[in-house]
Amino acid sequence: MINALISNPNHQLDSCTDSIHEAISLANKYAPRLLGIKKNIDVLFTDAFYGIIPEENFGAYTHSSDFIKFTVKSNSRLETYDILNQLMHELAHAVRWQSNNEYSDTLLKTLIFEGIATAFSVEAQEKLNVPGDFFIKTIRNTSEKKILESLSAISGELSNSHFDDNRIFAYTPDSSDLPRWTGYKIGYYLVCRYLELTNQKASGIINIKYQTIIDKLEATKTI
Q1: pTM for the complete prediction?
Q2: Which of 54, 76, 101, 202 has the fewest CB atoms found within 10 Å of its own CB?
């Protein structure tokens, strides 16, 4: 069960509570069956923190296998499907941790970690026949040429255990020398390439070992 926890002591989230409940309801109908959720997951909605995508008025972060946090801009309206798309991304992270305790200890593994979640949110969006949010549209509308240019730019860092997370995975525009959301774009590209090579869906590889994907990508000279 996916549970919504809305921190709204002064009614600052009144304008988006209906959308939150609708998104959680849709997620409960779809995600458990596809993801194989093994335990309850709480999703906190609050305006108490930082990390918001300006175009969507919220940002999200998965802290553990059973806790996700959405930071919401106070007194803003949120679109149900925007919340749902981002929630699917975060649920993929949480469910992976429920069955696979691997740590993404290199940049390449972190790219794959985010790529799996992004690919699953795209799969869910298409399965449910709902609009993609700004994040998904941005990722999918980036040309392969641009993605390969960015991959080339960070190729020497793929094995690094320490890297500038904000530079590579930045939420905000113009915050680094790389295009916005470079890490998500590359991760999505790499995972989609793996899915094409193996004829699988993202929902079927949520718990896959990093090395399995890496070996296939290296064998086909994708990386």
Answers
A1: 0.94
A2: 101
